[in-house]
Amino acid sequence: MQLSKAEEQLMQYLWKLEKAFMKDLLDAFPEPKPATTTVATLLKRMKDKGFVDYVLYGKSREYYPLVKKTDYFSKHVNGLIKNFFNDSASQFASFFTSETNLSTSELEELKKIVDQQIQKQKQ
Question: Is 19 helix (H, G, I), strand (E, B) or coil?
């Protein structure tokens, strides 16, 4: 299941805050802020999709994520690799490194990360 662009933006705030009431979420948005009803609708959809839940305090709901940010984006990236790069991580890496205008130092940092992961997997 995927989030719409608006839901994803709201989810980013919730991941950052970890738990939040409606007021906290509205405060996180830049100006012009969305209507309370818009955010409430997004939260209901996200709850129906299994991304968030809430604890009721009287009439107030404190929302919290059910899905970790890393899990969501991992699934997103894996879907991207599968759908656009023939399920080939090396094709994705080739495209990513050649088409994103990375500096030499950024490429060296990526290489270091890959080398560290290789060492971890060998242990």
Answer: coil
d(CA 85, CA 92): 6
Distance CA 23, CA 21 (A): 5
Spatial separation of the C-alpha atoms in residues 79 and 98, rounded to whole Å: 20
- Condensed to tens digits (0 to 9), the pLDDT of residues 34-83 reads 999 999 999 999 999 999 999 999 999 999 999 999 999 888 888 888 88
DSSP type of residue 31: S
Task: With H, G, I as helix, E, B as strand and everything else as coil, classify residue 13.
Answer: helix
Assign 78 to helix, strand or coil: helix
Predicted local distance difference test score (pLDDT) of residue 31: 94
Using the structure block, give the residue that is written with the tokens 């919290």: 64
What pLDDT was estimated at residue 101? 84
Rounded to a whole number of angstroms, the distance between the first and last alpha carbons of the chain is 34
- Give the three-class secondary structure for 40: helix
- Please name the amino acid found at residue 75: K
The closest alpha carbon to 92, from 109, 78, 112, 76, belongs to: 78
Query: Looking up tokens 């495209």, which residue turns up?
Result: 95
Residue type, 56: L
